[in-house]
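A quick aside before the break. I want you to see a complete sequence-to-structure record at least once, exactly as it would be stored in a machine-readable document. Don't worry about memorizing anything.
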Amino acid sequence: MAAPESSQTQGQRSQGGPANGATTQPGKAGGQGDPAFGGERHPFYRLSKSDTVDVNFTFSPDFNQTLTVLPDGFVALKGAGTLLAEGLTVPEMQSAIAKAYRGFLHEPEVTVILKEFDKPYFLASGEVARPGKYELRGDLTVNEAVAIAGGFTQQARHSQVVVFRRISAYVAESHVVDLKKMLNSRDLHEDMHLQPGDFIYVPQSRISKIRKFVPTSSMSWYMNPMQ
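That is the input. The structure line, written in tokens, reads:
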């Protein structure tokens, strides 16, 4: 059917994704990279695999349906084929579904309601006291996220905290945050605000990379300086 094909194209165009079919990840920054991470502070949630939505037609309730995003990123529309839903925001999906049904419904009025979805989260790894996956509640900064993860370990390099943000299925941005400088200057204006799915990595300091125990044979010059 022509309508489902055009709706799939519409879904891909609305993402601004690449022509090879790569999709923007759910809840992440938009499809365009931003090295300074200066994009939207509160971006729309983007649909992910296993998310469920209710679709209601105001004037054609016979077409009301509940859709689940399949592992391949598509949903099966009642009588209108398939639609690529992964990576779409709710308004984008609403427009795509309306377009898919225009072939046999006159100006369909569609409402899409997000029913079940993956809760926003961030990941903390490296030199933090409690590495792991944490729920992202409200507006959170990198400094606050590190505190939630238990703070820095003694081996942490506070000046080079790395934040990775996926912007497509194949590309992620990285940004280095100098929390040491911020805390020393007591100025948190540059503290970065997290988005769902962000991955925080705290590397080791250089001095901590020195092995705690080394073979004495490698220290003969130290043990016997006169030799």
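Two observations worth writing down. Helices lie at 2-15, 90-101, 142-148, 179-185, 220-223. The domain at 2-116 is CATH 3.30.1950.10 (wza like fold). We'll return to this after the break.
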